[in-house]
Design a protein that fits this description.
This protein is an alpha/beta fold and about 210 residues long. The chain contains 8 helices and 5 strands; from the N terminus they run βαβααβααβααβα. A 5-stranded parallel β-sheet has the order 2-3-1-4-5, sandwiched between helices.
Amino acid sequence: MKGFFITVEGMDGCGKTTQTNNMVEYLKQQGFDVVTTREPGGTRVGEKIREVLLDPGNKGMNIVTELMLYAAARAELVETLIKPAVEQRKVVLCDRFVDSSIAYQGFGRNLGIKAVEEVNSHAMQGCKPDLTLFFDISPQEVVIRKTRSEQEDRIESEAIEFHNRVYEGYLKVAERDKERVKMINARKSVNEVFDEVKKCLDLFIRKGRYL
């Protein structure tokens, strides 16, 4: 059995967390050893970087600093968790990866795809997702479904124009790499969304002959 690397992407509030938990159980039922992680974070160093990046008190952070911090957390995660786990024939399921940086920093912050890819080429060390599930729902639809019971982090509290650019970035990523990035209609019910997820996973597993 081979190891492989799956990432989940989408706007904050798209339902990634719920579907990731469902995916973990489903993959375990198929006989896979599953490791879950997140970005930024997933390591001791990465979690400290996460605190800095998402702290509302750091609003106004230089956009290049932001890009570099995300890449730094990613480098730590790749080296200490993702690559070793895949080499041990495990499935790594990661909430966000470099596609988030393309969407949020490349498009949201207007740094451009090239700048994001150049910085992250060092951080990723050739590590790329085998499969990415993009939970497709617009920022406007997310606003309707989200509750305001919890304080928003630094990124979540950005203006809707920022989130619209991020969404545009995600659509561009999906268009550029249709083989890897699979669009999931996140506007449906939880069960309907997971049905789509399972179809993508089953096809990917069969195609790669992972079982």
